[in-house]
Amino acid sequence: MAKFPERVFSGMQPTHTLHLGNYLGAMVNWIAMQETHSCIYCVVDLHAITLFQAPKELVGNIREVTAAYLACGLDPKRSIIFNQSQVHEHAELAWVFNCVARLGWLNRMTQFKEKAGKDRENASVGLYAYPNLMAADILVYKGTHVPVGEDQKQHLELARDIAQKFNNDFADSIRERGHGDSFFPLPEPMIIGPATRVMSLRDGTKKMSKSDPSDYSRISLTDDADSIAQKLRKAKTDAEPLPGEIDGLKNRPEAENLVGIYAALAGTAKDAVLEEFAGAQFSRFKPALSDLAVAKLSPIAEEMRRLKSDPRYIDSVLADGAERASAIAAPIMSDVKDIVGLLRTRL
Ligand code: ATP
Ligand code: MG
């Protein structure tokens, strides 16, 4: 396969304010990748509406998530930051991919099953087709590297399958138009660090999510010191003290989760945390974790408050980002139309 220039793409949904799972599973890697790659970071509002969002809240959440991106350390000069719906090529390519992806592939997606729940007949078509839009988000920029949490691994595999099938189905057209043996790269998931799947504080078998109805299930980036301490104090645990080694966390999902969060916040590994806290009760470990979380998160919350008081600045970042994103996406989408055989007469 042809060598594609490296380009990072990733996004988060403006379904609620960001939480510790978004931060540790994805954001810390987004920030790091700015040093080495050209990066596009998107607020994926078209994904958010796959579940109903109240319009006024959605507008607010798009600005809020953008403020979180900036407060966490994304640099709008170095990276491209924008909201998805302002670059129409995402939706356009998603339609083409709706016609490339197979029903059987989408039927295997576990996120749809979890989010649709028991009342599957009543789920939106958008929720079902979500992974096709996600593939389009990445591939409309020929993105090669996608830093995400562990829950998105299956969707990334699907994006690779879609890219591969497009390259195969249209191989002759791709070659005739001078794109060599493949038009799209096969994007690689980057799932890195000790907290790639942060679990709910209420249930160690469920991932921490923006869309979880319980606010006690997650630590949000906007939580103050008191709420962080209270949520961690109430976090579900078992009665055993912490073990000295990783093996001792087996079948203890809640303990493992808190140790993973501590390790990620401290920038260390789980075994180093266990070395320090071997034999400790949660009554000692939880306050230590609270202090660490407050120290790391409160500067972010403060910067978010500052940014949110200036929505015009936020909007200017999104406008500039959307323009730069369009400049990359438009010619790629135009090539896709030529490859597929969609006649254009208005050029
Ligand atoms: P929603 O419940 O609305 O789906 P979410 O919390 O799952 O929200 P997304 O916007 O879907 O957040 O995902 C944004 C990024 O955060 C993705 O890269 C995803 O893999 C990552 N992520 C989400 N939840 C977690 C988690 N609990 N642990 C680690 N990474 C996570
Ligand atoms: Mg999600």
Number of helices: 14
What fraction, in percent, of the residue positions are helical? 40-55%
Beta content: 5-15%
Distance between the termini: 31 Å
Shape verdict: globular
What is the H/E string?
Answer: EHEHHEHHHHEHHEHHHHH
Architecture overview:
The chain has helices at residues 20-33, 45-48, 55-72, 89-98, 103-107, 110-116, 125-139, 153-169, 171-176, 225-234, 253-266, 270-277, 282-308, 311-340; strands spanning 8-12, 39-43, 80-83, 145-147, 188-190. Helix 1 links the parallel strand 1 (8-12) and strand 2 (39-43). The protein is mainly α and 347 residues long. The chain is globular, with a radius of gyration of 21 Å. 53% of the residues lie in helices and 6% in strands. The chain is built from 14 helices and 5 strands. Helix 3 crosses helix 13 (282-308) and helix 11 crosses helix 12 (270-277). The longest helix has 30 residues, at 311-340. It has a 3-stranded parallel β-sheet with strand order 1-2-3. Strands 4-5 form a two-stranded parallel ribbon. It binds adenosine-5'-triphosphate (ATP) and magnesium ion.
Which features would summarize this protein structure in a list?
single chain, 347 residues, mainly alpha, three-stranded parallel sheet, two-stranded parallel ribbon, 53% helix, 6% strand, globular, binds adenosine-5'-triphosphate, binds magnesium ion
